Every structure is written in structure tokens, then in C-alpha cells.
Amino acid sequence: MKRTLVEMVMTPRPVIVSPDTPFKEIVDVLLRNRISGVPVVDRSGRVMGVVSDADLALKEAELEAGSEVHVFDTPKRRRERRKSRGTRAAELMSTPAVSVSPRRTVDEAAALMRTRRIRRLPVTEPMTGRLVGMVSRTDLLRQYLRADEEITAEIEGEVLRRTLATDPRRFGVQVHDGVVRIRGQVERRSLVGGVIKALEQVEGVIAVDAQLSYEVDDRLVPTPPTYW
Known about the structure:
It contains nine helices and eight strands. By secondary structure, the protein is α+β, with helices and mostly antiparallel strands. The protein has two domains: 6-143, CBS-domain, CATH 3.10.580.10; 146-216, Histidine-containing Protein, Chain: A, CATH 3.30.1340. The strands form three sheets. Strands 1-5-4 form a three-stranded antiparallel β-sheet.
């Protein structure tokens, strides 16, 4: 089955800053390039961390909150206070940087973003740690631009014929704007859920409308005979 890799959708040669880049210049980089975060890269090209607009906004938040230190501040709160006093990228960045390999799938990248609650990922070579690109949530949406005809061909040739080992001619498959409509009959009722799940995993599919009947309801458990 087709799987789009991160390297296919990432932005190569992204904007970067050095550990010594000052606060004001980082703000200018974000605004001028219309981005929400920028990787901090050392001289060898390795990613040290990422400075986001949220990191920079801590300075304004601390001005509003005041500089009073509280005994019961959490470790996270203390880190935010230190970061709010930063003047250069090395002091402002979030570290360690969460990154992804260019050969991971967009689904894996999306899961990582969701788990870590971030909007962008530096793309780094696993062996060297060197930056090769940046990928954002918006970049990951490109898989949904896949042509309906291409999705149909994969469903009939890969999902139905190979994965489910069934004749595609037993089904009517239509794809419009990424929505799959499938009609037909399977051998057993327990197969219906598996067919729908397999279709949902096809890249570019937005939703599945399945009207599938079955020959045998194998979910019915026969009642054992009663002996008197």
C-alpha cells in the first residue's frame, strides 16, 4: 500500500538560527518567514533545540505576572521563568528537540506531533542528527490531495484483491473527494469491520460509507441443546 514519507512533504533547507542568535532577530525571522518556530542548529548542522513563538511569548507573560518567585513553583514553572529571562536562542529554545527521520511516514509524524503536542518537527538524519528539513501539520495534510482514481485503484488492487483475498468484482467501489462508497457482500458478518478498517487505512481516504451484506452471521452463538 502507498505510504507518503516525510521527505516527500517536508520543507528542505529550512530557516535556521544559531545558538547565539539574539531574541530580537529570532522574532524577525519568525515574522518575516511567517513561521511559528525555528530550529537552533550548531556549526556541524545538528539540531540543538527549537525556539517557538510560545517560547518567546513567555517573556511577555512574565512581565504581566511579575518577577516574584514562589516557593511552591513547579519545575516546569521554574524553567519557564528562566527561559523568559533569556536573550539568545540557546537560552530560549525548548530542548531536547523532538525530531523525525525523513524516511518515516506522514502518519508516524502526525502521531508524534499529537503525542508531544507540537505543530512542527525538525527532520534529521538518524545516523548524524543533521537537519535536512522541517515538516508541519499543514505539510502532513498533503496526503489528502491524492486523486480519487488512484485511491480506487489501490482499494481494488491492493486492499480487496491482495489484503482481503477477494474478487474486487464482487463490490461496487466509488471514490469522490476522498470519500469511499463500497457496496457488496462478504462471506461472514465478522469480516465487515475488517473491510471498513482496511479501507480507512488507505492513504488519502477521508471517510468510508460501507453498505455491505453478508452470507452468514457468524456472530450468532448457537444455543447448546438442553438435556432433561
